[in-house]
Amino acid sequence: MGEFDLIARFFKRPPRHAALGIGDDCALLQPAPGTQLAISCDMLVAGRHFFADVSPHKLGHKALAVNLSDLAACGAKPLAFTLALALPEANEPWLAAFAQGLFELADAHDCELIGGDTTAGPLNICITVFGEVPVVQGRSLALLRSGARAGDDLYVSGTLGDARLALDAQQGKLSVPAPVLRAARERLERPTPRVALGLALRGVASAAIDLSDGFMGDLGHILECSRVGASVQVDRLVQCIGCYAEAAPAEHPLGIDLSVEQWRTLALAGGDDYELLFTAPAGQRAAVARAAQTSRTPVHRIGRIDAIAGLRLLDAQGRALEPHDASFDHFA
Ligand code: ADP
Ligand code: MG
After folding, report:
1. pTM here?
2. Which of 33, 110, 306, 324 is deepest in the core (most CB within 10 A)?
3. Which of 1, 6, 7 to probe ligand 1 with, by most ligand atoms within 8 A of CB?
């Protein structure tokens, strides 16, 4: 099977919204008047971002999901994407499953594949997504990392730490009951991009970022870009560790042999969560609750933005955690 057969067979589909899709030197997108294009690109490398033997269906999903998550963080509506693929071989069942996982998620978000590149090489997947953000009275409604202000509330969507738990269990660092591991692996391998929440937070949130590298590091980006600090109630954050509670209520958290510090580490430094971390003025609490409701996404208020630089981690009584309690590599 040659390169062009492969593209025609697995990736070319009838165009939907794009002015021109796959097949020419460029694709053509026609953004609606009064909108900006939001563009983001993420590469997944075998051995680095996923195990080479992971299910191709799940890989197709995840490769697009991590990109849609960036659009979600900007409050952008997905339009289209390109796919650059390096493949060690043209394995037809693998390609069929990969394309299926990819297009299931693409169709769920009405996001169309408009082009790409295909080459032989070590397995590598690079997707670029294009989304749309309205501009109202000359002002973009894009959610940025730089908009947090002192006094704003700090929120996180969904659950944290699940993907890291699955990874550590798969690598034999932790022993986890089977139903919990199943739920956690689902979160690692098939993350849900919070697109609907991002859209609902336009005009409500003051800043946003998606959690790909871990809560601490990603919050750091908001603080740096907004030139502010934050206080976080760590125990509220730990309560965001969710899949265990659902999968094993009787065992939570005792079915898993973790210290308090390790639980905190999962929530604070887990990574691969693909939840949204965002800020909003305290006067917007009702609007945030409505956004959570209309997007059917759980949202937790976990802290506050401060004028004083730096990140303060507080326990349930509001006492500052000692730096050693808050050093986040207990798994290292
Ligand atoms: P060029 O050499 O002009 O860059 P190619 O021959 O690489 O074009 O690709 C032919 C067409 O197929 C282009 O429209 C390109 O965008 C598309 N294409 C190539 N690889 C993929 C892929 N993996 N998924 C979707 N479209 C692809
Ligand atoms: Mg090419």
Report:
1. 0.92
2. 306
3. 7
